[in-house]
Records
---
Amino acid sequence: MRFGTSWKRFQRRLRYWLNHSEKNRLLREEMEFHIASMIDELVAQGMSEPDGRVAAHRRFGNMTQKSEEARSTWIAHWMSDLAQDLRHAFRGMRRDAGFTAFTILIAGLGIGASCTVFSVVNALLLRPLPFRDPGRLVWITNGDDWTATQTEHFSDLRELNRSFSDLAGWSGYYFPGDSELTGAGEPERLTSVPVTGNLFALLGVEPAIGRSFTAGECQGSYSAPPATLLSYSFWRRRLAADPKVVGRTLTLNGHPVTVVGVLPASFDFASVFAPGTPIDIFIPWPLADKTKPMGNTMKIIGRLKPGATLRGAQAEFTVLGKQLESQHPERNKIAPTLVPLEQHVSGPVSPALFVLACAVGVVMLIVCANLSNLQLARLGTRQKEMAMRTALGAGRSRLLRQMLTESVALSCCGAVLGLALAVAGTRELAHLHAFNLPLLESVRIDGSALLFTLLVAIASGVLFGLLPALRVTALSLREGMQDASRGSSGGKGHAWVRDGLVVSELAFACILLVGAGLLIRSFLRVLDVNLGFQPERATALRIDPSFRIPGFAQQNSFIDEVLRRTRSVPGTLAAGITDVLPLRGDRSWAVSAVGQVYGKSHPPPEPFIRVVSDGYFEAAGIPLRLGREFTERDRASSERVVVVNETLARTLWPGQNPVGQMITTDGGRQVVGVVADVRHAALETASGSEMYLPMRQTGDYAAMQLVVRTALPPVSLAAGIRTALRPIDPNLPVREFVAFQDLVDKAVSPRRFLVLFLAGFAAFALILASLGIYAVISYSVSQRVQEIGIRMALGASPTNVQSRILLRTLRLAALGLALGMAASRVLTSALESLLFGVTPGDPVTFIGIGALLIVVAALAGYFPARRASRIDPMVALRAS
Amino acid sequence: MGTDKPKADLLPGTLDMMVLKILTRGHLHGYAIAQLIQQLSDDLLRVEEGSLYPALQRLELNGWIEGEWGLSASNRRARFYTLTSDGRKHLNAEATRYRQVTGAVARIMGFT
């Protein structure tokens, strides 16, 4: 059938169905004409008029039935049946409001959770990255997933390769607040990213206003870029979305830069490449400029040519890397590693998301088991209704369909509630900025999430309605019409099904609880890690002076002045300056000790470099292990000194006293002290080597972070420090104090995200499972009032009755627990990569969760058991 | 539920085909269609009213016939049906198919 005609037919059917009362009347009129004609004919044949009428009606048959038959062609049967069933369902819902509300609430919570998790998974994993043809974008690193590449290598690779239509890059060494904006309005530190001019074209991003960088703009000087592209959010926030912004001049680090364009709102660089650090502006990166930073500084991204494969490109780049290394021994090592950009962005979060998706699936199963159980409990009342319908001629499939329609209608109502919850939940997640997860800002309820919700609603409705529907329709007519609800033997199979549901609920809840338990314990272990510094009450403020510092003397008097004034603010316990805050930044140099020989097999260690002033160790809470800290007297003119961490000391001088040793790096320095290791990369990874240079002896740093340890809450100190520093530099932007605790919180936020979700799901599962036990036990008590009455009349004590019921509860719980524990033991090994400091078979978690579940089950069984023990045998027996 | 199928004494689809064929004679109401089928088959085929009206609804929904209200010879309001061009095409197709089927059946039964 051609589409056009079937569409026309559908339209006609729909029209008929919509006007069905009018159509029905006309059909009857048509049929009445038929009868009238028949009467006419019979009368013409000699019959009397009344006889003719009777005969005609007899021949024609039941007009209502005929018209229904005729009408059935208007629209498929199922549709009118559906309408009828829905009417029944809603009538039923009104009749049993408590049950309905409970069902909708439970289903709504479950569906809301599913929909939220789906939206997160959709945004982070399923939806393509917000760039043109993102499947052809490739992330190119140097060795491991995070090491950057030297710009010289980048230029050569870009020129020599044949696999990519283009390569682009940006500086991996930008930090929050790198640039200072002065001029009109309050001075402000901006986060700026130096990018190659072709980056936006390569990603397929068109500026919303203006244009991208020209080749000329990418030839300027690194420290004073001639042009800038604004991020959409910065343009809105700082420039009030000025439509004529292109051509305006901003003062950046004391130099004028021209705004050439504004990037579109849909382009969120930070959320893809650097979650948690919003970017304000982009500046061109002049690759040929001699003043640009040396070393491995560049993050590279490439777009594969049509027809080129990742494997082929990798092979080519491996060869190119070797070739470049042999041609340019003076440069850093290069071993290009290619991964699809999508994998680079969402790869690290996918195990956690997979766990979340499984967890929410288990939650939905528990929800269904619970609702199924609830429906089964109501079967007593429904049974008679169904028997009546059967007696009136409804077939089994028709009844089955009615029951399923009811449960699906309920779950769809739940889905409406769930959607509302999910909309609120995703909005909260997208705007929270509390979690360092890529693309989290783009989490929202979209078309696919709506479709998913609908599918979940229907699937869960069928799932939790199927069992009760099968049961109720399987019961014979006779059984239903008699009042069979009495006596202890009423429905043995029935009880078995419900017990099975409760056991599976408990088993599922057990799996979730064990998973959540393991992750919570890992989280606590991570928080318990010895950071090497003390984040409490330490706070940092970026204080790079807005004026040029021409020499060491001026620089050091600036440092002296800042520290003196800060330390005089009441409440300050310690103050110092550093160039890099913990958990941010990873500049490293190769360092060799005097008197040691290094080669290919024995390379020198590459510690992270920190440039700090006196007082920093105390302010950050980094304990001194040996020797001394830096002092005010470590100046340009005095002996060149260095402080190392324990790991570096152990690596360079194993078994020797490191204090007094010399290193050859940076013109030769003497070790004066050893400090504790600081976790600089992540809380979970052990610290590497670190080396601290005194700030007063070097100019080789990119930022000045004033770190203050306070006795008061850091917030209350901010105003005092601001006032104290104003005389030194009136232009000092003091927008942001960064609490060290925030640095730690940011670093653990992906883990916290997972733990919060999973703990919530586990708690929900526990509540549902305990409700399930409670419902089953108290139902069985109410079914067996008589039996219990007889037992008590025959001499069973209330304690005896109570313990029998409790035992039954505990038997169910033990069975569920055993199944759940066994399944957990198998499943938790999949969690291994997410755990920290605990094994997947962690006995503490397993035993703790087991005990928790038994206690909860016992409590859920206790109340019905107590009720049973208070049954008065006389009342119970008389009631029958 | 099977109520919209023609009665078993007719081959499936034949009622629809016959109604369409009758309507090639001009526009007719349901009663006249039933009468004509009966007469033309020498009273061998009698159309059940219970099948006729669903068949008419079905044909109209498919766009093969069109119904219109008018006055009958006895001056009563009746619904008259006419064949559409789609209906004519469908009739030809059905007739060809029917001839093939009955021919095949007849050959097997040795009627020819």
Note: Chain A has a mean pLDDT of 79.
---
Amino acid sequence: MQLKHGVISAVDHVQEPPDIWFTRVNSKWGDRVPRLDRQADRSDIWVIDGQQLPLSGAGSVGAMMPDRTIEPRTWADMPRAAWEPRARLEAMDRDGVDYSVLFPSVAGVAGENLNRIADPELELACIQAYNDWLIDEWGAASPRFVCQCLVPLSSIDAAIAEVRRSVARGHRGVIFPSIPMEIKALPHVNEPDWDPFWAAIAEANVPLVMPAGAPGPIQIPPDSSLSPRVADAFRAITRAASHVPVMVNFLLSRILLRHPTLRVVFAESALGWVAYLLEYTDHQFREDGVHTEGYELNPSGMFHRQGYVTGWYDRSGVRTRDIIGVDNIMWSTMFPQATSSYPDTKDFVTRSFEGVPQDEREKILYGNAAKLYSLN
Amino acid sequence: MQIKHGLISCDSHGQLGRDAFTSRMSKEKWGDRIPQVVAVPNDKGATIERWSLNGKVSGPGPFAGGIVNCPAAMGDPTRRTHPQRWDEVPGIVYDPAQRLTALDEDGVDAEVLFPNNPTQNFGFPGDADLELDCVHAYNDALNDYRRYSDRYVPLALIPYKSPIDVIVKEIREAVKNGAGGVVMLTEPSITIPGVKPTADPFWDPLWAACEELEVPMCWHGSGGLSKELAVPLWEGYSRHATHTAMTARLCVTPSQMIPNLLFSGILERYPRLNWMLGETGMGWLAYVLESCDHEWERRQLWRDGFETRPSEVFNRQIYGDFWFEKAGIEVRDVIGLDNIMWESDYPHITTTYPDSKAWVKRVLEGVPEDEQAKMLWKNAARLFHLNVESVAPGAPA
């Protein structure tokens, strides 16, 4: 594969502009359609079917702001590269990124802000608006954008239908909130009810992608005494850590054994805890005698065959790549969030990959992602 | 004390005797609310014994596990045997004299004592008065270990529901009588409704006292947050898979609690107050330190009074633990060679007892001897002020 920069970012975010919703969602829904609301203090917030959300949604555009900790107050101040594909391509060229795998912001970390819409018809209309906009605007603008779809949670059947429709339109990954039972009344992800969903994704030959920051109490709220800036830092730190129980549950659930061709990305995981977690899960799995209960692979075995994690600033995680699996790590820039390595991605890569053999470096920086998303 | 073997366990579990509370608490005042061993029928109608707290039999269910958590000491290599009555509990678990033979058999010089039954959650149910009397009795009873031998480092418990001056008074007395550290819930406000959060100025007199007394605050495992920070537990797991699911994920708690502590301002205000972690393992600490430093840099948090890089604050004041892992050893320089301690977790199911020497040899293969010495006993001896008089030739130094 010929790349100019040698970096595929497995996690970047788009900011969904207001016109996606009012041009694509039937006006019969009135003010329940996601919209911007101008506040008394002249700032904009989002309102999604009564749910109020900050302007930057579940994401942030700090990396493009003069002060990374201060988000724009109105849509007019939203940096163009956050929501417009051509401006984004220029940012990628500046930063040294060949391909970018896309995630939402306003729709949620993993679509959950739309999933919280109670009416199944409105939820689906909004999900499809996002999925179609991404393909029509970003996918059409350049093959350098790797589009991934969101799914409705009104029913498992509805989710499966949207997977099939979206993949047919060109989406290359399925984004899924890791604990859907916290959003809607749904069976636990480990229940057989979900098997047709995993099967549909595996059959479509695209990965299941679960971003960090699951809904529910899994992230401790920042202490009330913290300043907003420190509270945001705290949330960014605890978000990646919140993937720990998600990974443990998934690896013990046997989902990967029942669906041996399903690939799972634990996106925005960071890397520093992964070697420890695989080692400890294997250790307890053995100590507790679970290996006698009919698992053909142990937890790290399942992970090595089918799992992926993503880094962006990590060094110790790269040092423990043998335990995580050189084939199981992808790199990212997390653009345009405050935590992003932009515009210093080249420096971050130099620092993180010091001493790493060339072939391993290429796998992590772009080879694994290219293979996973069929980008050859 | 002497270092004969070169291993100090920074996390073992000290079992009190069956009469620890009944011999110390007023029967007139508390009656059957005193923690004590009681006879109960099991689901097959046989009579077994369990601890009762505040008049109720404690634990996940009277017939799960045993009266004392000590499966590694029952002579069953599968560790599936639990004592159902007090007379089945081996003396090497609760008797300070006999327990030293277990340490010697395992090749361990000293051990730091976190709680065992009946207080594995590090708290007592009931009102503030009852809690205080229970804690006081506990602290006094556990100090019997120290009175017997300086190879034991008892950790004091906190009466969370009391006013701060009462808490500080209890801790001062416990330390005076031998306690070498203080066990703390990682976020008491979540575990016990009504108790102030760690970052609240309410706790300042405790930090000041512990800094002055030079005793560390000691967190253990999920420190009271095992239910909250989890994917809802799947009912379809077997009993053993449930245990794996519940334990393997535990680093999610300290991964969030260490940043909670690093950003609380406590460590800046009390720069000589130490914290240590028991039963958390340490590989994940590399993630926490890098993540905190990264976000501190990207967001320029020195503007908020955090002038020192978070990983440097950690290196200055916080200690982690390891027992089974290799991954964390590979990045020990990231965590800090002076910040790592070893543990055995005796007598719990995951303990390296009675093969601690063999475990350590395997896990530390290739690590230079002076680094081994730090991680295996020197850092713990320093943190807990163990007066080491001599080091045997065979021990790492």
Note: The longest helix of chain A spans residues 120-141.
